[in-house]
Amino acid sequence: MISLALCGALVGTGLAAAWTLLRPLPRPLGIELARLEGPGHRGRGHRLAGARALTTQLDQWGMVPGWLRADLAIAGRDLGSWGTQVVLGSLTLAAIGALGAGGLALLGLRLPPSMAAGTVVLLGVLGVVLPVQDAHSRAGRAREHFRQVFVTWLELVTLGQAAGAGVEGAMAAACELGDDWALRRIAGALAAGRGAGIGPWEGLRALGAEVGVEDLARVAASLSLAGTEGARVRASLAAAAGSLRTRALSDNEGKANALTERLFLPAILLAAGFMLFILYPALTQVLSALGGG
Predict the structure, then answer these.
(1) How far apart are the first and last CA of the chain?
(2) Do 101 and 116 meet the contact criterion of CB atoms below 8 Å apart?
(3) Which of 46, 66, 266, 292 is the most buried (most CB within 10 A)?
(4) What is the full DSSP assignment across 184-228?
């Protein structure tokens, strides 16, 4: 009875929290006017304004680590929308755990109150850990792709300078040669640097700090030392592209070797199983003959 009451209280608390986070909140007049004037504006964010506000408040309190913000930035995810999904997923799993414990109690399998509460808390924590792990893995793949595109962009800028274009002109032309999201991020960083009057290198440095790619900061530092002379900038770009390309190749070789080592043990087990499958009839005959003798 105590476990059933505890599960009911947890379910009620979860439903109340979900309603608080999901209920539509009144929007300011400016947002309403923007929604009416802009045909492409969907205006769906207000439905989850409570969860967004909670995530923003946690970020202001310093409870969101910097590496998580960088992971979401490289993946193109908004902290508010991602936090909303995490909160809802955690509440959903906790509610499922409470309902499961309550169902067992109705069937006569009453769990101890501490075990029921621990299960609900564990599922709630799992609803937070799994999205964080997923975001980190997605960010790792996105960073690897970004590095490859960045190296290609550096080589294209070098080719543009060799063709007679200026530094900034070659950078802009290289960004326009593709529609990849990484090229758009680089183009946006360059435009932001020019708009702020800090130069393209500082824009790249800021982008590297935002998405957690240190290669951008290192290249921006070396290029800022090269100054504005075209020949020196071209040499620095070529050296940076070659260094990054060599490191990328060595990283890929290391990953291939690690994958080969991981596949070595399953291959041995498969070969041993195959040999046992072939030798099993002969072994059974030998053992039966020895036993009969």
Answers:
(1) 67
(2) yes
(3) 46
(4) HHHHHHHHHHHHHTS-HHHHHHHHHHHHT-HHHHHHHHHHHHHTT
State how far the Cα of 226 lies from the Cα of 231, in Å rounded to an integer.
9
How far apart are alpha carbons 139 and 141 in whole angstroms? Answer: 5
The owner of tokens 């995810």 is 77
Q: 3-state SS of the chain: helix, strand, coil percent to 5?
A: 85, 0, 15
Q: What type of residue is 78?
A: D
| Phi, psi at 151, each rounded to 5° | -65, -45
Alpha-carbon span 153 to 237, nearest angstrom: 10
pLDDT in tens, 56-93: 666 666 667 778 888 888 887 777 778 778 888 888 88
pTM value? Answer: 0.63
Q: What is the dihedral of CA 229, 234, 239, 244, to 10 degrees?
A: 120
Encoding tokens for residue 6? 């505890």
| Domain ranges across the chain | 2-138, 145-247
Question: Which stretches within 65-180 are classed as H helix?
Answer: 66-74, 79-106, 113-162, 167-175
CA atoms within 13 A on the CB side of 42: 3
- Closest to 133 (Cα-Cα) out of 74, 55, 71: 71
List the one residue out of 130, 146, 161 whose CA is nearest residue 235.
161
Q: Tell me the CB-side half-sphere exposure of residue 164, using CA atoms within 13 A.
A: 0
Residues 6+ apart with CB under 8 A from 13: none
* CB hemisphere CA count around 30 (13 angstroms): 0
pLDDT over 70 at 26, yes or no: no
Q: Are 92 and 131 in contact (CB under 8 A)?
A: no
Return all residues near 209 (Cβ < 8 A) that are at least 6 apart: 217
**DSSP letter, residue 65:** -
213 contacts 146 by C-beta, under 8 angstroms: yes
Q: Using the 8-state DSSP alphabet, how is residue 48 labeled?
A: G
